[in-house]
Amino acid sequence: MEAAEARRRIADSRVARLATVGDDGRPHIVPIVFALDGDKLYFAVDAKPKRTANLKRLKNIAANASVSVLVDHYEKDWTRLWWVRADGTARIVTDDTETHRAIELLTRRYPRYREARPPGPVVAIHIHRLSGWSAEP
Amino acid sequence: MEAAEARRRIADSRVARLATVGDDGRPHIVPIVFALDGDKLYFAVDAKPKRTANLKRLKNIAANASVSVLVDHYEKDWTRLWWVRADGTARIVTDDTETHRAIELLTRRYPRYREARPPGPVVAIHIHRLSGWSAEP
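Structure tokens for the assembled complex are given below, as produced in the milestone run.
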């Protein structure tokens, strides 16, 4: 799949899955909502009840910045399957201006974030590689 | 989420995402179709055109058996979101009887596999931990 098409499909998707790696070498995977900004992908820790603010995904990113993000489409008709993966490096955003901008992008995309702005922190993923597969030629 | 409920939600899902870790410590993520058998989850390398039979997911599993599998539900109404994660250990199945049984389970679940049985190899994931989250109380 061409990079431009892969990018378009990520931009059109409302949910992705984030894989990180713990300092024990084990993978961890969670769904995320996100916003694209150039070659960066942002997500925020939101206000859903979480056991702890020290989330596993953040702990993993602090220990190992390599992440992989997947969007995919599934249906019974397997000729219509596709997926796009963005591999990159994550960092927890500490700059207030960048945090504000990322949360603006997220609230534009997700109406629910307008009602309850995510407190953060925000994570920025710098996409180094986009790859994709589609069953349709 | 209770383990029984988490298990039911995985069993009712048709697609999951598999995260593995490469020998370079980077995560890798792909969608999979799968079948459950007790505390094992099976998937097969299928006949879709792949660049190489030596797939990254298999190479990663050979180097690091720790895997994480996610099923999730997304919709605009965020009060209906949920996800379930199965963390475990993967192995490439080498026993013919187990391969046959796994492919039987997969073909029962996916009509497309009846038309084109996956050649394999089959991977077995032994689930060590099931966890889940639901926005609905």
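The mean pLDDT of chain A is 92. Chain A touches chain B at residues 14-15, 17, 19-21, 25-31, 48, 64, 66-70, 72, 74, 76, 78, 81, 83, 85, 87, 111-112, 135 (CB under 8 Å). Further analysis is deferred to the final report.
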